[in-house]
Amino acid sequence: MFFVLSKILNVLFSPLVWVLLLILSGFLIRKNYRKTLHGAALLILLVFSNGALFQGVARIWEPNPVSPELLSGKSSTIVVLGGMASENKFNGLPRFAGSSDRFWQGYYLLKAGFADTLLISGGLGSLFDDQRSEGELWEEYLQRTDLMDENIIIESTSRNTYENALNSAALFEREQRTKRIILVTSAFHMPRARACFENQGFEIEVFPADPVASVRPLQWKDYLIPSAGVLEAWGILIREWAGIVMYKMNGYI
Asked: Which residues of the chain have pLDDT under 70?
């Protein structure tokens, strides 16, 4: 029930949706309130499309990038969280999202010898799509491209971050692995992911990937020119913050 409810509510955690609802409300409610509602819509649009404001908040929220050389070397397993790929229904291949940076960062750590095992944890996280689980897509892709080896493990039943941690913990206990890991996920998602895994008894070293905060200095246009991309990026952070609240309410973290 929580999984279904969280997917439905996710639609509302977007400034663009707020703008559209306010504009629509302005036409449906009494004319006296129209200017107020449409003015609020314009204000939200201007605030949440400002790149400089977004970058300031994102840089505060996201953990700093980590140099691999600063890892302790005590973690034997890298855990990469799903949410990176979905099935292309036309040809059956994975359709990789920007968050697939998670895999490539984790894969680098494995091949560079910072740990000896890589676990990819990801199932079917969508509510209505009829497709194969993400774990299955990754396993097939890695095998066909000769990237798969005996040091990569796939966990393909988790639908969300809580289940990533829960199912990973069960796998570690079943195989009697030490629960000291390098956790790799998108930087904006790391606080919630870390809390979930620590709640399952893991000792964590974080390795953030795919930051929403820009790695370049701010430019004049970030302060002055509204950006549709920034408006969409705010939705990522707001949904993540809402997810943390819901996870706390359910005792997941």
From this structure: 1-9, 125-129
Domain 68-206, CATH: 3.40.50.620
Question: Which residue matches tokens 């095992």?
Answer: 117
Segment 166-203, tens digit of pLDDT: 999 999 999 999 999 999 999 999 999 999 999 999 99
Half-sphere exposure of 250 (CA within 13 A, CB side): 15
Q: Are 172 and 201 in contact (CB under 8 A)?
A: no
Sketch the domain layout of the chain as residue ranges.
2-62+226-249, 68-206
Q: What is the pLDDT of residue 131?
A: 79
Six-digit token string for 201:
């008894």
Residue of 101, 73, 51, 90 whose CA lies nearest to 233: 51
How far apart are alpha carbons 143 and 141 in whole angstroms? 5
Collapsing DSSP states into helix, strand and coil, what is residue 206? Answer: strand
